[in-house]
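Severity: low
Component: inverse-folding endpoint
Summary: output formatting inconsistent between runs
Steps to reproduce: submit the following structure tokens with default settings.
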């Protein structure tokens, strides 16, 4: 009998073991990974946890992740559980505590304190909360780059329009030469009017990992708020927001963290909370509050299970695997005709994203051919570079890389 059918048939009086199904799934996974010392078998077992259609190569976690079976099962179980007693599960003490436990796991995932982290739906929402929670004056400057995603930049355009502040965009190199040169670029564009710096932790365009800690050393003494768009990091890189030195950090858990679609985290450093006062957090960072309102309980609880899934595998292992696959991909693409790699080669400047620029043909058409004729899903990247962006995650393996590289090579030969 399927677990959810079983739950549905339980009487209202029966004790529903909260999280029991998810804990069991993850305990099974933990046991089987522990008894799999061979590296290749280990990742094969991890790969078997995903529901991706056989034959499909999904290498676009930077847009949207694939949620693994234990998280999907937990999500559907939670839906049934919540509907067994909506009032209690949504507003009762136990129900609220379970959501607060997820917030605590979110704080731990970012290595932040509990009173610094809120659960959101995505990065865009988190960035909007930050921008809407700030007071700026005409002539104040918001320093950003020309490599930001709209989800991390529209909020600043809105704020500039409303306040008369100005946005200054650093022209970023296609391939950043070194961390020092990136920090120098930031320094060169700071002025006495700069109030905010807003940068992506990992660039959606080139996969560059911004040297945030070094940038914070420049912004903090000047009292410039350092806002970080972290859409592309948690679940790919081990993130420690205190070590990064950022004042705010907004992320999407449905990308690399592999959580249900519509889940995210927002960090606001304690010392920055007087300056950044989002309306939605006015009555506290709790999942449910008077200013935040009612939430999707099942989605939030499954968000917690996604974090547990990462911990079951080991976050360092996840990061190392994403990086190792990206290195393999880089090698596989080195000799493909008409392709130039934009992502920096230095390990500290990249993670699980590899962006290539196509020197001929149209990246949009190439992407579509790869999806339609080869079942290989990549992302059409920035038009500025006629780019294709490729993500390497734990559900990918060497065979995916081989398929993607040979498909791309074939398409480029014909282009
Ligand atoms: C750097 C960056 N910021 C923000 C977003 C928007 O993410 P979401 O739609 O989850 O808010 C993305 C999405 O790809 C992104 O790459």
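Observed output (run 2 of 3):
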């Amino acid at each position: 009998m399927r677990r959810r059918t079983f739950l549905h048939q339980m009487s209202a009086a029966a004790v529903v073991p909260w999280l029991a199904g998810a804990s069991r799934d993850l305990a099974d996974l933990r046991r089987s990974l522990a008894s799999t010392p061979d590296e290749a078998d280990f990742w094969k077992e991890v790969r078997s946890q995903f529901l991706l259609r056989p034959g499909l190569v999904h290498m676009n976690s930077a847009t949207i992740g694939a949620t693994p079976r234990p998280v999907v099962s937990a999500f559907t179980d939670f839906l049934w559980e919540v509907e067994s007693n909506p009032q209690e599960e949504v507003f009762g003490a136990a129900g609220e505590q379970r959501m607060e436990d997820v917030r605590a796991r979110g704080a731990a995932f970012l290595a932040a304190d509990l009173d610094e982290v809120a659960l959101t739906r995505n990065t865009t929402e988190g960035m909007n909360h930050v921008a809407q929670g700030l007071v700026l004056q005409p002539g104040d400057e918001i320093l950003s780059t020309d490599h930001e995603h709209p989800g991390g930049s529209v909020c600043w355009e809105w704020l500039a329009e409303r306040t008369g502040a100005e946005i200054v965009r650093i022209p970023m190199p296609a391939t950043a030469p070194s961390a020092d040169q990136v920090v120098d670029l930031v320094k060169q564009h700071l002025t006495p009017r700069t109030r905010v710096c807003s940068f992506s932790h990992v660039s959606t365009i080139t996969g560059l990992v911004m040297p945030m800690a070094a940038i914070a050393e420049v912004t903090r003494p000047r009292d410039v708020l350092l806002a970080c768009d972290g859409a592309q990091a948690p679940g790919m890189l081990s993130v420690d927001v205190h070590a990064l030195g950022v004042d705010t950090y907004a992320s999407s858990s449905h990308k690399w963290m592999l959580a249900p679609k519509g889940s995210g985290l927002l960090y606001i450093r304690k010392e920055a909370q007087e300056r950044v006062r989002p309306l939605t957090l006015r009555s506290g960072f709790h999942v449910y509050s008077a200013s935040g309102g009612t939430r999707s309980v099942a989605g939030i609880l499954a968000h917690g299970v996604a974090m547990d899934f990462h911990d079951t595998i080991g976050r360092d292992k996840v990061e190392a695997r994403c990086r190792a696959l990206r290195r393999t991909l880089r090698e596989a693409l080195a000799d493909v005709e008409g392709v130039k790699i934009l992502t920096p080669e230095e390990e500290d400047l990249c993670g699980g994203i590899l962006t290539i620029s196509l020197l001929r043909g149209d990246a949009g058409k190439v992407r579509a051919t790869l999806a339609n004729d080869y079942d290989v899903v990549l992302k059409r990247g920035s038009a500025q570079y006629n780019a294709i962006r490729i993500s390497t995650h734990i559900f990918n393996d060497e065979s995916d890389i081989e398929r993607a590289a040979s498909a791309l090579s074939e398409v480029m030969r014909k282009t």
